[in-house]
Amino acid sequence: MKGDELLTDFFESSSDLEFVQDALEGADFVLTLALEKIPCEAGIVSFFDMNRREFVIVRQRGGQRRALLSSIPEKAEIPHRAMRSGQTVVIAVTNGELASDTRWAAMGVAPHSALCAPVQLGGRYLGLLELVNPADNAPFDAADGNAMSYLGQQLAEFLGSRSISIDVETVTRPPLRARAR
């Protein structure tokens, strides 16, 4: 699914976010939705830790190893570009742009194409939504970036009215839907 069709699908599906209870469930919901619509090798949602000035992984899908609570500095190139522009950064990783991002290596993933969507509200950093390596092996494009920007905005609006916690015990607890099985 690409372009306007993807954006329309995100628009229709993200309305269910209003039925989610807390910030971590919201992160889980949005990451699951993103990967359903844009199948990829891996995806992560990070929350911004204002005290440490870094983005911390709170939800992960894919990868060979778990990297929850791994982090990247606020001023790292890709997150910094995403936050400053307010738009998703679309990366074809041919020039090593993600070489310094140890989070993917911690997951056992070698990115060749990536999306980094800002999650911010009124200039306030809340987090990042990131996907790597589309399942169809085609690089991400601007249409994918636009759709992810929309999804990042939806998550930001959701998080804006909730308490965001990066508590180790809470983050590492399985998502509610996984515990209910």
Radius of gyration: 15 Å
Helices and strands, in N-to-C order?
HHEEEHEHEEHHH
Class by alpha and beta content: alpha+beta
- Low-pLDDT segments, ≥5 res: none
Strand tally is: 6
Give a short overview.
Helices cover 38% and strands 25% of the residues.
Task: Write a structural description.
The protein is an alpha+beta fold. It has a single domain, classed as 2-Layer Sandwich (Beta-Lactamase). The protein has 7 helices and 6 strands; from the N terminus they run H-H-E-E-E-H-E-H-E-E-H-H-H. It has a 6-stranded antiparallel β-sheet with strand order 3-2-1-6-5-4, sandwiched between helices. Helix 1 packs parallel to helix 5 and helix 2 (23-37) runs antiparallel to helix 5. The protein is globular and about 40 Å long.
Helices and strands, with pairings:
Layout: H1 3-13, H2 23-37, E1 40-49, E2 54-62, E3 71-73, H3 77-85, E4 89-92, H4 102-107, E5 113-121, E6 124-134, H5 142-159, H6 168-172, H7 176-179
Antiparallel strand pairs: 1-2, 1-6, 2-3, 4-5, 5-6
Keywords:
181 residues, alpha+beta, Beta-Lactamase, 6-stranded antiparallel beta sheet, 25% strand, globular
